[in-house]
Amino acid sequence: MKKMKNFQLVALLLMVMALSCIFTGQATALTSEQQAEIEAAVATGDEEIIKAVIKAVIHAAVTADEDPGDAVRQATATAVSAAVAGGKDVAAVTKAASSGAISGAVEAAVAAGGQNVEAVAQAASNGASSGAVEAAVAAGGQNVEAVAQAASNGASSGAVEAAVAAGGQNVEAVAQAASNGASSGAVEAAVAAGGQNVEAVAQAASNGASSGAVEAAVAAGGQNVEAVAQAASNGSRSGAVEAAVAAGGQNVEAIDQAAQTGSNQGSTQAQQQEGNQEPTPEPTPEPTPEPTPEPTPEPTPEPTPEPPPTQDNQPGSPV
What we know:
Mean pLDDT: 86
Region (Disordered): 259-319
Number of strands: 0
Keywords: Signal
Shape: elongated
Signal peptide: 1-29
């Protein structure tokens, strides 16, 4: 009996040590100061500030050789938790945080040189969506599908923006990698959380990944939008399926169909939205006044000849 208790105690200690290693590894991705910066940015409710602060935080973390996936996962989870606690628009904060995080990771990879930019984009995007979904589930009462869609949209748009801005990057490949990571991260987190509608999460994440990539490509200008859309669609669908297969016990066909539907919807909606934007009307030129025509002179009437005098009226006629 004593040996059994000792064995159980050792097993418990080993489990605690393992969990400690996991959480310690995650905790060292970002410093407490960096987490405080993210929380302060979220407290402002300003999406541009949130995006800029998290972009800088992740750029610094990746430059310091932190794992992009772990760093971004912690950043987005921190942002979502802060948004819930502060009563902010969780989806808007998630999108801004995810976009800034992936931009920072991709920019850091490009600046370092010799990095596999697509791999960094994929890992960071996976961290963005998984961290956001995990935080949303943990908070309770959140629309997990909306958070997954916002995180994936921000991830793919941030990746495309950074790739275009850096120059010399294969934008389609980056879009595909980011979309793959975003949808796989969302599915992984939904499965791990339990009690989630995995197909709905897959559809929402794929929708966000495709729409984000297309929106960023259109906004950047000079991009092959159709190619980016196709790449993002392929990436989001394959990411969802890969995650479902790896998790086991999932309806892979249903998840594949949901991801395809979401991807198609996201891409189509993004392109239609861009097409429906009315261009700025050009000022209507004032009509040039037509010259006033000179009046046509009326013809002068010819004098009517007087009739010849009759015999009675002729002078010298006998009376």
